[in-house]
Amino acid sequence: MPNNNNHLDLPALESWLWDAACSIRGPVDAAKYRDYILPLLFYKRLSDVYADEVTRVAGEIGDAELAQQLIEQDRSLTRVFIPDAYTWTELRRSPVDLGERLTTAVREIAKENPDLSGVIDIVDYNATTAGQRRRVLHTDGRRHPHGLHHRPPAGRVAL
Length: 159
Fold this sequence. Notes:
Elements: H1 10-25, H2 30-61, H3 64-73, H4 88-91, H5 98-112, E1 136-138, E2 156-158
Antiparallel strand pairs: 1-2
Helix pairs in contact: 2-3
């Protein structure tokens, strides 16, 4: 894969990244995966930008709590507004009901930022397949403590 200078050339990098994406994606069609993952990446980026802008405003006025209050009152202080409960950092605190919480987060962000409606809120991350949610059970029938998984590890059965 590396060339003589111990650097990764562009075709090798593209191949490696494609293989990595296919490994993560599993049996999901690439086009559907793209529709699923791009809004997720965009949400992460929006959350990072918002956090940076809150930090900037806090630096300008010298008080983080006051900056948050001002931003909530005057949304023009930042390019995007994300309610505290729906920041990426907050979402990551727990894997419980992650699909439902993620769908709610992107929908609430779209409500607060109408320009993002139809961009970030197009995927239901808690969607079902054929009317059934995939649940992961241990082979002895116990429910997996973290709920949904794309592929069950050895010794588990996906339902």
